Amino acid sequence: MAFRENFLWGGATAANQCEGAYLEGGRGLANVDVVPAGSDRFSVGSGMMKMFSCNEEHYYPSHEAIDMYHHYKEDIALLAGMGFKCYRLSIAWSRIFPKGDELEPNEEGLKFYDNVFDECLKYGIEPLVTICHFDVPMHLIETIGGWRSRQMIDHYVRYCETIFKRYRDKVKYWLTFNEINMILHFPFMGAGLYFEEGENKQQVKYTAAHHELVASALATKIAHEINPEFKIGCMLAAGNTYANTCHPEDVWRSIEKDRENYFFIDVQSRGEYPAYALKQLEREGVKIPFVKGDKELLQTYTVDFISFSYYSSRLVSANPDVNKMTEGNVFDTLKNPYLEASEWGWQIDPLGLRITLNSLYDRYQKPLFIVENGLGAVDIPDEHGYVEDDYRIDYLREHIRAMKEAVELDGVDLLGYTTWGCIDLVSAGTGEMKKRYGFIYVDKDNEGNGTLRRSKKKSYNWYKKVIHSNGEDLE
User: Which residues are annotated as active site (predicted)?
Assistant: First the structure.
């Protein structure tokens, strides 16, 4: 059998994409709540358009999402019905500290997650908790500029201490930041960064990144002090970048693109800034805001495992005239003529998952965890809400096969696999509901209309069989 006996099969969600109830239970406003659906989403999410509050001209899908806040018992029961061993979810920071700078947490928010974790444990489901899945309390963005300020480290550490102590007997696996490299690509969504005119964006991004990296090391330190059994991971938006041709300049460009993303994990896993990053930042005139003790912290408190999302590989050319770009998450990529693409232009590359697993394991020699992988597609339900989603089954089957080969044939140490959006939720990239990933259909459309009724898709019973057979039965 390829996978370990206690392999953590499951699925993943994020609070801001599924919970809704954005101002209930004492929760404060967060950056994720003011990023609208529609044509302004990218401008706001990338920090180019200032939107620090909501208005009537825009629709904000996170406000209700799929209302898991009120449906969590039903939803977790559905996940348990597939035999989930693990459920990756995130805590909404502003549910615990509504403004972010309070000295005492919001008990109602803490109690909500107590209930969620208890519900998981009732079914034998291991929670895997993302501490910060893009959430930043808006009060901290308005008062100190989000992660550009070093004060954020103290606020984050207080938040971590609070949840580590509260859930020390309920949660074992933690991720410090979701897709930490997204700070370079979607900085307001990723870290609450808004850029003033004329500001050195690279300096701001890497200043914020340094603060997050120090905060991650401190979280790892505190976690192991509170409960030595805790396992702390980092999280990367992964996918290897291929060279467009065998021209050495293309190959070099592909190495540079991969390094942009490896940089964060190099620090979190190896404990120091890599030489290539220091040289690159020096050339760009970017100064890393080290203070006394930072380097020792990063060196001493590295993560226990590496987690990552994988949806597709990427392709790059050094030739500026080669410009047939495809859509694809928020990462630019050339169209790969050897790959098919999803309805949103994400290139489908199962072998790329095996390549990515090997690249990460060769680089870090730490256990890996695939915490996001899935196919966003338009699902057409029948009158009962049933969806014949063979395309999703095909996508997942081939990616699980590739994952299996990485474990069985290449010796990659893999802890688990949680598919993205195990229940339909709001897309982080586009804000749409019609871009669905789940095994469970939720009756809601892009405009927020629908009954929120849950129903099982064809993939629900297929994934149940995969889990039951520990990945042996993929038909």
Answer: 372
Residues with Cβ within 8 Å of 320's Cβ and at least 6 positions away in sequence, in order, are: none
Mean pLDDT of the chain: 96
Domain that holds residue 218: 8-468
| pLDDT at site 321 | 80
With a cut of 60, say whether residue 329 has pLDDT above it.
Answer: no
**CA–CA distance, 157 with 263 (Å, rounded to integer):** 23
Q: Are 423 and 66 in contact (CB under 8 A)?
A: yes
pLDDT tens sequence across 211-249: 999 999 999 999 999 999 999 999 999 999 999 999 999
Clarify whether 372 is annotated catalytic: yes
DSSP 363-408: HH-S-EEEEE----B-----TTS----HHHHHHHHHHHHHHHHHHH
In this prediction, residue 188 carries a pLDDT of 97
Residue at token pair 């910060």:
132
Q: Does residue 342 fall inside a structural domain? A: yes
Q: What is the DSSP string of 215-239?
A: HHHHHHHHHHHH-TT-EEEEEEEE-
The CATH number of the domain holding residue 375 is 3.20.20.80
Candidates 447, 289, 428; CA nearest to 372 is 428
Taking the mean position of all CA atoms in its chain, how far away is CA 361?
19
In the numeric block, the tokens 């550490």 are attached to: 157
Residue tagged active-site, from 179, 212, 372, 432: 372
